[in-house]
Amino acid sequence: MKQEIIIAGFGGQGVLSMGKILAYSGLMENKEVTWMPAYGPEQRGGTANVTVIVSDERISSPILSQYDTAIILNQPSLAKFENKVKPGGILIYDGYGIIEPPTRKDIQIYRIDAMDAANERGIAKTFNMIVLGGLLKLRPVVAIESVLKALRKTLPERHHHLIPVNEEAIHIGMEIIKPQ
Amino acid sequence: MAEEVVLMKGNEAIAHAAIRFGVDGYFGYPITPQSEILETLADEKPWETTGMVVLQAESEVAAINMVYGGAASGKMVMTSSSSPGVSLKQEGISYIAGAELPCLIVNVMRGGPGLGTIQPSQADYFQTVKGGGHGDYRLIALAPASVQEMADFVGLAFDLAFKYRNPAIILADGVIGQMMEKVVLPEQRPRLTNEEVMARCPWATFGKLKHRGPNIVTSLELDPAEMEKRNIHLQQKYAEIEEKEVRYEEIHCDDAEYLIVAFGSCARIAQKAMEEARAEGIKVGLLRPITLWPFPSKAIAERSRQVKGILTVELNAGQMVEDVRLAVECKVPVEYFGRLGGIVPDPDEVVTALKEKIIK
């Protein structure tokens, strides 16, 4: 099993940390992982993206031409990555950030209104975990238990009381993701 | 108990490996894309545990001269920077090489020339393997291609540096520095005691002892006859390193009709390109130099006998390609493909280049 994933959106949306949690969860399952950010003079409001690869075997390139799955959280990122999803692959986008939705016919397109769900429930900071939940519904790259284990391991103990709300966010994401 | 594996950036791995290897001192100055080395050391506070000194100098020039001083006393010392910062260090590096002192320099390259970009590049290949500073000297140059190698090469670089009394450099790029991967860190070992340092480095300047005169560390001889002797000695040492310390990795070379030569992040990208090309029935192999100096010229010459053409993939305008051409003495076509200024090619671009430039 190998999953090549791009997560792209605005800086400040939790794109890089979502990738990090996914990579760390893969590590909890003893998988090979790489996390490669497009780093630069990034800032809140600018674009940010990260490539995450989770694999049972040694990973060659951290830089990819095409992806199995693209998670797109804003319009500029859709323009950049829609054509880089492998035929038959999955594209997930957040309805709040995308005005002109993707149009490709040879890939599976899903919409997740994660920003709206997070705001309605007053848990805006878990936006990226809702999106992660949507991904895990479609692509069970890692088990939810591994995500929780990764959170326990990476979060400082004073933040451990936030783990249940993150778990809830994952479940919300699993429920609200739907085909376009 | 299973080994403890951690997920971290290449830069962080270098910092953790340095502490665990018992390094005595780090002297640096922040610059993207390698600032996490200094930041991680500051976070870890090794001065409270192993006693390792971590110091942010006032400039790159100061940092390399602190390394010069620390190395002269036989201590395990290092610095790190990125391209423009490493240019500033060149005078000090030449002095350290001339004085035959062991140390580690880390260069996490960015796009140049000048201030350039902060994105990945390998444009300091020439600077690293052909000199950089003045005079006839060489650096032992290691090119990691994974986060694990970022960690492993700290110890390897120091072992080689002390074995040959020569500065060693880890030449990485922004991809390897910024990427996170699984890594197994070395066991924590204690720093050497002063007695152990004196036993390992009888040449070091740790004060005049009763049984001998003062040790003098210098790169200066006023008598040219003496200076020539010193230079000849250096060249003999470099010849020995070239004989004994070449390191490289070969993947799918046995049945290869074409060969890609690439180091660092480009070797990873080229490996994926190789997999794609092989899926199309193109028999291509990958030779990854691990030591850029000494360069695996013999291994490349050996492989050149079986292949129809060689492509180098580099994040520069074609630097290592010159050494590959020298290695094969132009007996097979050797072409270069690369991107510049901080742009990293994807595997498809490498496959296309292989077809257009080599297979035709």
TrEMBL record, chain A:
Domain Pyruvate/ketoisovalerate oxidoreductase catalytic: 11-175
GO molecular function: oxidoreductase activity, acting on the aldehyde or oxo group of donors
Entry annotated with the keyword Oxidoreductase: yes
The entry's keywords: Oxidoreductase
InterPro entries: 2-oxoglutarate_synth_KorC, Pyrv/ketoisovalerate_OxRed_cat, Pyrv_flavodox_OxRed_cen
Domain of life: Bacteria
Residue runs in coiled coils: none
One Pfam family linked to the record: POR
PANTHER family linked to this entry: 2-OXOGLUTARATE SYNTHASE SUBUNIT KORC
Name listed for the protein in its UniProt record: Pyruvate/ketoisovalerate oxidoreductase catalytic domain-containing protein
Protein's organism: Phocaeicola massiliensis B84634 = Timone 84634 = DSM 17679 = JCM 13223
From TrEMBL, chain B:
Gene Ontology molecular function, alphabetical: oxidoreductase activity
Species of provenance: Phocaeicola massiliensis B84634 = Timone 84634 = DSM 17679 = JCM 13223
One Pfam family matching this protein: PFOR_II
Pyruvate:ferredoxin oxidoreductase core domain residues: 256-350
CDD domains: TPP_PYR_PFOR_IOR-alpha_like
Sorted UniProt keywords: Oxidoreductase
The name this protein goes by in its record: 2-oxoglutarate ferredoxin oxidoreductase subunit alpha
Domain (Pyruvate flavodoxin/ferredoxin oxidoreductase pyrimidine binding): residue spans on this chain: 16-203
PANTHER family membership: SUBUNIT OF PYRUVATE:FLAVODOXIN OXIDOREDUCTASE, SUBUNIT OF PYRUVATE:FLAVODOXIN OXIDOREDUCTASE-RELATED
Highest taxon in the source lineage: Bacteria
